[in-house]
Amino acid sequence: KTKIVSRTRNPKYNIVCLDLGVKNSIVKALNSYLCNVTILPFDSSSEEILKHSPDGLLLSNGPGNPNDLPEVIGVVKSLIGKLPIYGLGLGHQIIALSYDAKVSKMNNYHVGSNHAVKNIITNKVEIVEQNHSYEVLKDSLNNIDLKISHINTLDNSVEGLIDDKNYVFTTQFIPSQLSNPSNTKDIYQQFLNNIDKFRGIK
């Protein structure tokens, strides 16, 4: 198995990215937040991930049906609570499945750079970039630790999830410096804030 390391000057954080089809722009964005990023293949074990002593784990975006990746779901489930985790796109769906929520194919796909999403924690509406054909089913989130953080204003579908107790959060949408730089900053800062908090309790 091969790994790729993207380093930055004066790093403050060491992030492992499980590569489900990661965009280079996401890695470079993390570099800009003083993160060294180690990109590992999607089928890496939890032991291989932890071997790199990551401060946090990023589950990347990517194509396909998350239900076809039971091994990845199992690895994520085994890592919940052991380190801060952020999942976007396909990574968001994988995290939901690792909590035993359900993901299914959408009737109407979300594609484009101008989708309105409401952050129900801050009550702000954000314009985001999307490209996905699967969604986390809202009814399957009852009685589990993941709570909804973002919803799509058009069809009320799930766009983000959070588990504060275990320092896990997700976004279905892709943070984009081009379409919404302030929103992108908030998301990466949330990931780093979780890392700082987790470091404080270790």
How would you describe this protein?
- The protein has helices spanning 24-32, 46-50, 70-79, 90-98, 181-201; strands at residues 4-6, 13-19, 35-41, 56-59, 85-88, 103-119, 124-136, 147-152, 158-163, 168-171.
- It has 202 residues and is of the alpha/beta class.
- The longest helix has 21 residues, at 181-201.
- The chain is globular and about 40 Å long.
Rg, rounded, reads 16 Å
Report the sheet with the most strands, covering strand number, pairing sense and barrel closure: 10 strands, mixed
Percent of residues in β-strands? 35-45%
Alpha carbon gap, first and last residue: 30 Å
Uncertain regions spanning at least 5 consecutive residues: none
Order of strands in the sheet with most strands:
1-3-2-4-5-10-9-8-6-7
Mean pLDDT score: 91
Enumerate how many helices there are, as a single number: 5
How many DSSP-defined strands? Answer: 10
The share of residues in helices is 25-40%
SS content category: alpha/beta
Shape: globular
What is the helix/strand order?
Answer: EEHEHEHEHEEEEEH
Keywords:
5 helices, alpha/beta, 10-stranded mixed β-sheet, 10 strands, 202 residues
What is the gist of this entry?
With 202 residues, the protein is of the alpha/beta class.
List the helices and strands and how they pair.
Blueprint: E1 4-6, E2 13-19, H1 24-32, E3 35-41, H2 46-50, E4 56-59, H3 70-79, E5 85-88, H4 90-98, E6 103-119, E7 124-136, E8 147-152, E9 158-163, E10 168-171, H5 181-201
Parallel strand pairs: 2-3, 2-4, 4-5, 5-10
Antiparallel strand pairs: 1-3, 6-7, 6-8, 8-9, 9-10
Helix pairs in contact: 3-4
